[in-house]
Amino acid sequence: RRGAGGSRVARSGQKQARMPRAAGRRARGEYQPLNNMKRFPDTLACVCLVFEMDEEESNPGGGAVSVTQQIRQPLVDKLRAADLIVRETCSRDRDEMFVIVSASEKRQKQVAEVMGKRGLLALRLRQVDDEANEERNEGALCPFKAHLTPLYEWSSEGTLFSSYHQTQILEYILNDEDERVMGPQLVQKEVLEPGNTPLDQLVKDGKVRSFFRMHHQSKREELTRKWVWAWRDKQPIEDIREYFGEKIALYFAWLGYYTTMLWIPALCGLVLTVAQAWSHHTTGSMDNPWVPLYCCFTAIWGIVFTAGWKRLELAYQYEWDTKAYEETEQERKEFIQDPHTRQAHCEYKDEVELFPDPTWRSIALCVSAIVVCAFITAVVLVVSAIASFKYRLMQTFEPLGIAPVAKGIGGVMQALSIMLFNRVYQVVLRRLTAFENWRTPTEYEDATIAKDFSFKFVNAYFACFFVAFVQNNVTVYGVDMHCPEWHCMPELTVTLACVFAVQMTVVQTIEVGGPVLKAKHREWSEEREMRRKMGEGAVIAPMSEEEKQSKMEPYDGVFEEYQEMVIQFGYVTLFAAAFPLTAALALLNNCIEIRTDAYKLLQATQRPKHKSCADIGTWGSILDIITTAAILTNCALVGFTSHGLFFYLPDLTPVERVWVTVMIEHALLLFKVILETMLTEAPAEAVAAYERRCFLRDKVLAECEFLEPEEGDVAFFTDDEDDV
After folding, report:
1. Is 607 helix (H, G, I), strand (E, B) or coil?
2. Using CA atoms, how far apart are residues 714 and 704, in angstroms rounded to an integer?
3. Any bridge partners for residue 52, and if so which?
């Protein structure tokens, strides 16, 4: 693969090309990493490798040999010899070396051609209207082909390849995923552990401390301006997809849709709250004729919300061409390396396939079921104990006239127990799912969500279920804790308000403040150590951009974001009449949530790996379950917990009350089935636009087919010294 002196030989006997000056190999005697080296143009995206520096390298005047330099320098030489642009900078305390890697546009095109043939990289074709004006994001996605370069739509960053595509190309080169790209061969294939990439192996072997994708500075600033601080503007979903990928973009699309839909129950809830306050002022009770109507309305709203999202989700699948995503998923590294993964030869594919050990999988699922049931049992016992404590506290406070304070204390205790159980269960959940050994990321995520929701549905809502449907009918720990006058709606209101408000406040604070404080703590600790070594009066140099980003937390993904919002959706829909302000508070929280999540992604965490997806996965099924449960709970609230039915049917007997409740519940379930049947198909305009894009793409490809060079016609390496 290499010619003499480290130069490359072009494929098919083509003429050798001179290495670019900016990327060429540096003589060993000249090795001097400098912090003031010329930075890359803003058009180039970067991947940063973090190396350790020992004392000998940090203080070069001693004359001792640096072990860390001996480890790093051959790797850096290989990067330069692979026609990559490399820049090295030291951390301000000289304990880390940042090796920033990029590739020229010509090198990117060469690798993108290979990736396009494997279906790994696609760009949109340019689309123009009748007046020859370019229509952004209207062209079809097409695998990259170099001879079609003038026909592709440029990214919003002003380059052919977006910074996401550039980092994807860089990782493809660094990980030597195809011999045709002539990567640096940082690790010999014989040394690679199954499932590890060369970068993973370097980190595992301790040669590289870590690696991360650097944020694209200008696009980051643009998104911060257009997304984080633009509170009144619509989210730039297409820009988010281009920068972070379909998975994160789809989460924000769902969150934006959910927040927009929340305006309806929020306004109705405010009206009902005023009606309840007036009713309490005039009659001493919060029951009024609007309560049953609001319960039914919220159940219908939940049905319309979930059905509408399914339709919008299908539209995004056509727009982003992700319908067949799960068919192309790769196996998880952990699955490949797991000792309970077995191999079998597939005859019709003529290749070896991996599959989980069926016996081990069955044992793991049984263990998971037992652990989840144990946690659910613990929640039921703790909620009952807190309810018993609250009842005794109310008995103590009632002579003093401050019984509502006891209700508030009980509600806050329930909220704290929910968050504590969530924190403990989250640790156990990851281990249980890893124990089950799932093959693909989607299978792993679906299994995690299923176990997570099985527990958290009980943990989040059982305190409210207990007050609404259990407290009047069951003796707990030998104590009859029935509500005053057997009417539990006031107590349910206090419990729901405390649980929802406390969780909303604490979770939002931790979610935003956690990553920021961790990064700041690392920075403060480093500065304190530097002052200890250099003296209190020492001037501390500011951190470089790569050093700042290395201190940031890695992004954990959208799992916890969905989890938080889906649980919130349950609070909004399951107990609508108990605390009608829930929807308004959720709306306020979500308006802040969108911007704080955006800020966290752009300013508080490292740039995540681009991930695609076809839909929101099992979360969609969970929303369906909550919607169905909301029909049941709201009908039960109307029929049994509230006295609202008597405003319409004052002479109801207990049996007739049950029959009316069942009839309302069946009518709502029938409405749900009919609406979902009507809205199962994607919008006709989305399908038509997709078919039009595909037709125009096929037409362009057919017309340009004669321009495509034959295999091996183009030399792989070119002189691109003017690119940097």
Report:
1. strand
2. 18
3. 96
- 10 Å CB burial of residue 135 (0-12, 13-18, 19+) is exposed
Do 192 and 198 form a contact (C-beta atoms < 8 A)? yes
| pLDDT higher than threshold 50 for residue 16 | no
Neighbours of 288 (CB within 10 A): 22
DSSP per-residue string spanning 483-519: PGGG--HHHHHHHHHHHHHHHHHHHHHHHHHHHHHHH
Choose among 238, 274, 234, 277: nearest CA to 257: 234
Predicted local confidence at residue 382, as pLDDT: 93
Burial classification of residue 650, based on how many CB atoms lie within 10 Å of its CB (0-12 exposed, 13-18 middle, 19 or more buried): exposed
Collapsing DSSP to helix, strand or coil, 99 comes out as strand
DSSP string spanning 711-724?
TT-S-S----GGG-
- Cα distances from 650 to residues 281, 640, 645, in angstroms, run 22, 14, 7
> Which residues does residue 353 pair with via DSSP β-bridges, in sequence order?
344
* 174-223 tens-digit pLDDT: 998 888 888 999 998 888 888 889 999 999 999 999 999 999 989 999 99
- Asked if residue 456 lies in contact with residue 449, where contact means CB atoms within 8 angstroms, the answer is no
What is Dmax (Cα atoms) for the chain? 100
Q: Which residue has the tokens 């209700």?
A: 407
Nearest to 570 by CA among 508, 654, 504, 627: 627
CA distance 101 to 573: 50
Segments in 206-245 forming alpha helices (H) = 217-223, 237-244
Here the tokens at position 2 are: 């290499």
Burial of 360 (0-12, 13-18, 19+ CB in 10 A): middle
Q: Report which of 650, 469, 482, 504 is spatially closest to residue 575, judged by C-alpha positions.
A: 469
- Residue 306, classed as helix, strand or coil, is helix
User: Which residues have CB under 8 Å from 282's CB, separation 6+?
Assistant: none
**pLDDT tens string 130-172:** 777 778 888 888 889 888 888 899 998 889 999 999 999 999 9
Give the C-alpha separation, 334 to 341, whole Å. 10
Residues 449 and 6: their CA atoms lie apart, in Å, by: 50
Buried b (16+ CB within 10 A) or exposed e, 161-192: bbbbbbbbbbbbbbbbbbeebbbbebbeeeee
